[in-house]
Every structure is written in structure tokens, then in C-alpha cells.
What we know:
Layout: H1 3-24, H2 30-54, H3 56-59, H4 63-87, H5 93-117, H6 137-165, H7 183-204, H8 207-225, H9 233-255, H10 258-282, H11 286-291, H12 296-301, H13 317-325, E1 329-334, H14 336-341, H15 344-356, E2 360-365, H16 375-382, E3 390-392, H17 393-396, E4 405-409, H18 418-421, E5 440-445, E6 465-469, H19 472-483
Parallel strand pairs: 1-2, 1-4, 2-3, 4-5, 5-6
Helix pairs in contact: 1-2, 1-10, 5-6, 5-9, 6-7, 6-8, 6-9, 7-8, 9-10, 13-19, 15-19
Amino acid sequence: MSMNVVTLLYLVASVCFIQALKGLSNPKSARRGNLFGMVGMAIAILTTIALIVKQAAWLGANLPLGLALVLGALVVGGAVGAFVAARVEMTKMPELVAAMHSLIGLAAVCIAYAVVSEPEAFGLVPQDAVSSNFIPYGNRVELFIGTFVGAITFSGSVIAFGKLSGKYKFRLFQGAPVVYAGQHLINLMLAIAMLGFGILFFITQAWLPFIIMTAIAFVLGVLIIIPIGGADMPVVVSMLNSYSGWAAAGIGFSLNNAMLIIAGSLVGSSGAILSYIMCHAMNRSFFNVILGGFGGEAAAGGAAGAQEQRPVKSGSADDAAFMLGNAESVVIVPGYGLAVARAQHALKELTDKLIEKGVDVRYAIHPVAGRMPGHMNVLLAEAEVPYDIVFEMEDINGEMGQADVVLVLGANDVVNPAAKNDPKSPIAGMPIIEAYKARTVIVNKRSMAAGYAGLDNDLFYMDKTMMVFGDAKKVIEDMVKAVE
């Protein structure tokens, strides 16, 4: 196979990846997008195997072993991927995404170490100068970038996985931010040290500075993520997604592999754009996310407000069902509590019952509701909620004042009027779903505990609001029975 054919096949695979991104931008075309992604990846893998065979003259007796290792990795990786995909629940999708990001980062680090160990095997050293083992300076820069970004992605994604799972007692895996004095200064000093050892590797091509640089990057990845609270994981997940893409692109430049460069750039740029959108939806600084500490200020600022105790109006699931059944227009606002309770299927059943009674039911989705970008959309799609009744925040906020009832399920900060009405609030300026404008509001929560920002929610104390306490799935199932 000539390099022209290889380049052409990589280009075809890249077009498939672009079509995959386009398809995944809309729930109706998501299946087609996934199909394009799988086809593109299959083309890329087969082309890479063909490249290995093309190097048979250089590999010599090692070719059978090399092919066996590649095919074995494909079989094992494919089997593990199929097993995980078949067993993972939709509510666990954020953890799965974080785990995938960690593997991409680790793969970038492993490839970089393989290149530094045997650069001649990757075509970085001319065949007549193999004994010198000299890596061109440009490739050293690319290896440094790919390695430190990959290492940060790996360790940061591991911490994100722990925070998202919520089942580990290890302090760094807790949802609450881990903050300490001089946090940003320590991160800055580590970054400078990492850069210094990277420059030393660039000059000497020595193993020791390369290893130390990698170790510092692993530590830095942990320190960047631990100050970020669990409720802010949508931004973290999209940011780590971007990191993983840039790590792959950096290694692609080192290997002169067009496929890695294009695919990595697509992932990196799309992740960065999504991170910006997420930050805008939370009125946060994009650079604050990159430097770490995201969410810590809000949690600290709102701690005092969480102590205030005020009377609320509470009711039962039957009361809520009566209000919903007699309304003409209902807007449902799902939040992380819906995912925790795994109540999406019960909610779909409630939606169907209300529609049968002639109620106009719509869903309002906040961009950062849940623990990853599009978390609520994924849950509703898995429950087969029709796409045409699911609306983004900016598309439905203008109609909230005409809604008879707004049903808030497990959401807190994303419906807090303080973001609009209190300029001193830690969440001031954050775009919210304006549930407070509806004629009646029903809020389901386990308790009156504050949301991630640590703030009391004035919506809960309004005369128009009725609180229904309990597990979301149980409460919704009771509503279904009452509506019937």
C-alpha cells in the first residue's frame, strides 16, 4: 500500500468523524452519527494495520509478533468495550465518559514513551543513522506537549470519575471541592517545573527529565480537578474531552500521522467550544476552569445562606398529580436528582398519562443540568421521550409565564431566582430556567438541603410553590397512579 493510498484512507476516515460530530449534534441524527464514527474508526484501524505490514521489510522477524499484539489488543479492547457498553446504565454515562478520557490520555503517554525509547521504529530517525537514536528537535517539542497533556488528562479524568461515581470514600473522590491555602500558587510552581524539565528534555533528550516531567503532569492533573465540585462536572468532562483531543493531536504531529492530527484536533476544538458554552451557561470564567478551583468560590460564598430556615408549603404526590392533571400547560424541569433516582422511565409514563388527558407537556433543559454535557437529554432519550417536546433553556424561558404548572425534579441552582434578583449572590448572572414565572410550581426533592452553590432557593418559599419530598422515582410513580 502506497503512502498516497494511506493518506486518502485517513482523509476518508476524517470525513466520517466530521459527519459523526454533525450527526451527534441532534438527537434525531445521533444514530447516524454513531454509525459514521464507527465506520471512520474501522477505516483508521485497518489502514494503520496495513501500515504495519508495509514496514515488514524493516520489522523482519518481528512482524508476526507485532501483528499478533495489535490484533490481540483489538480483540481484548473490543470485547471489553462491548461488555461495558452492554452493561452500563444511562445514569452511569458520565463516569464512563470520564473513564474513556483517562484511557485516551494514558494511551498518549504510552505512545510518547515508546517513541522516545525507539524513535527509529516510528520513522523519526533515518535508517542510516539508527545508531545515533537522535530525535529531531521539532519532534521533541511535540512529544513533550502530547505527554504532559495526556498525563494531565489521565489523572484528572480518574479524579473526575471518582467524583462522578459518588460511591468512593477516598477524600479526593468526594463531590465537595478540596481547597487549601496557596492552591493556585502550587499549581503554577508545578507547571513551571514541568515546563523546565520539558525544556531540559528538549535540549538533552535524556530520560530523567522526561520521566520527572511526566510525573509532575500526573500530579498537576489531580490538583487541577480536586477543587472542582461534583455539580460542576459538565464543564470538567467537556474540558477533559478537549485535553484528550489535544494530547492525541500532539502525538500525531510527532508520528507524522495525519489521522491522529485531524481526529485529535476535532475532539480538542469541539471540547473547548463545548466547555466555553458550559461556562457561559454558569456565568463562570473559562480560564478559571483551566486553572482549577472552579466552583470553590461559589460554595464558600453561599455557605452562610444555607443555614437560614423558613417555612415552606409541602404536599403529597396525590396533590401534585391533581394539579398536573387539571392543568392545560405543564413544563417539566429535570435535574441531577432525576438521574440519581433513575426515574426517567417513570417520568415518561407520567408524561404519557398527562398527554392522554389533553395536557400540553414540555421539558425545559438547562445546559449544565446533571453531571455531563447533555446528561438530561441522554436520560430522556433513553426513556424514549419525544424529541419535539424537549426544549433548551433559551427556547422555552420566554413561555414560562404562560405555564400553568412547572414540575421541578431534582434541580436546584438552575432554577434559583437569586441568579436574576440578587446581584450579591454567588450565582448572580447565571442563566436559569425561569420556573418562578409560572402560575404554580411543584418541586420534588429529598430534603431542603441546599444545592451545590450552598444557597437557599427562594423559589421553594414562594406562595405559588408546593414542595413534594421523597425519592423522585417513588414520587413520580405515585403521581402516575393518582393521575390514572
